[in-house]
Amino acid sequence: MNQRLQRLADQIQRELAVLIRDEINDPRLTGLVTISNVKISPDLGYADIYVTVMERDMSDAMAKDFHQESLAVLNNAAGFLRTELSHILKTRTTPRLRFHYDEITANTNHMLNLISQAVQSSEQNQTSDES
User: Fold this and answer.
1) Main localisation, per the record (predicted)?
2) I need a labelling partner for 75 at 20 to 30 A (CA). Which of 37, 108, 117, 131 fits?
3) What is the CATH number of the domain that holds 10?
4) How many domains does the chain have?
């Protein structure tokens, strides 16, 4: 990606984060939406937005349905978000927004949680063995 597209992607990422937080009031979107990456096509036709939605205390089965519903809300709001972006960006055209669930970031967070739990368990076992 050239430098111009990267700057635009970074600006879209910053502006969308604010717009989603402040303007999307859909009750189905209850978690914390994090935009992890934005990729823009060279012709500025599309912007693929990779998001994760953090929701606490959910089983894996519930989380999958929750993420699908959150993506549906974001994709339904894509036209509104694009219009709002067009007022902010200083470009001739504003790319169409397509939201995707970022599996890599979600899996990384899951692995970090498992490692943290294993370390805590190991520390607790060492403490109980010393007693």
Assistant:
1) cytoplasm
2) 108
3) 3.30.300.20
4) 1
